[in-house]
């Protein structure tokens, strides 16, 4: 019976914590959201070339400031895994930037070869990997802000990720595979045939036991990091899975697509915990690092002018009034 009580307990939590708050963040589409490692700040990156920083104050967010400086769309962002003040952004302007929320300034700009779309910072904080539209992955030393390696792939590279030890590098590709490379020598260790369709996104869970991938076939597959075996799939969405996120305790997996819900499933059983209703395709989801709060951003349009992007970010999981 313990089996059922766990999912019941999670479902009960969201019955009383199902409020979504919406915040004006940008003048255009929001591509990426992410929480700082202490959960005090939420950042969003947008097509409008800026990065907005919010602070979480109990049950609401307050906009703190906006970072400007990129000359192109901010496609993905990621925070440092243990320095609460640093985050990095990948932009179409052929650069990576590191921002410091304490000084509210850009701490470094690293010029790269192409239009960047994906970024991942190692858990040990020493390396940032960034992928561009030409499937070149660039590895940046965060202590010197110099490029230490580049790897050109001959297939479509989608999202990238690191394992907890920062010695394995994962990437998803257009052929439905997950490539695992050793780091720093970048030797191919394994190719997993994960999906019949394009593998779009990948995320490693905070406990280090699992990783999950979302695919164009509308499936999310869950893998054991040690065994490299697929444990189960989540198949409740009907559209290509654009974005996934594990909760802080590794118990929940959120996945989103063009479906008008964000699916939240229990990792251990694959069962549905809750659906979060949305009004448009969802580009990015991110669980808070210590609470069941899910930040997300959709392709919403302005209420008064349907041609304009709303530029809002949302957070689900606040106590219901």
Automatic annotation (TrEMBL):
Ranges: WD repeats: 23-64, 67-109, 192-233
UniProt superkingdom: Eukaryota
One record GO biological process: mRNA export from nucleus
SUPFAM superfamilies linked to this entry: WD40 repeat-like
UniProt key word Repeat: yes
GO cellular component: THO complex part of transcription export complex
Annotated family: Belongs to the THOC3 family.
Name of the featured protein: WD repeat-containing protein 55 homolog
UniProt organism field: Gryllus longicercus
